[in-house]
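Just wondering, does anyone understand these tokens?
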Amino acid sequence: MNDQILLLADVIVRKLEGQLPADEYGNGWTEESRHWFLGFFRDLQAKVASGEEFSQEEVVRLNIAKAIDSCGIVGGDLLELGSRIWLLLRDYRSAMNTGRPQA
């Protein structure tokens, strides 16, 4: 599951590193939000890559879709990617709590 999180985080970081498509700006992205989330996803990548565990509080705080929504972003590929990453983080944390093996 870590591999999936890292893969999706890499995709979103690469998208945020460049100029966003016009439709993403139309969905509410700004240069400020692009820059902030670029740092956010880079930090997330580093934490996942290090193998550091996420507490339940961190997973709740990392509700990426909610954070993106609070910035006024209403849709688009980046919101979808962020939501998928958050769901994987939530499932990963849940698997850690139940002792289930992670893919």
Remarks:
- The radius of gyration is 14 Å.
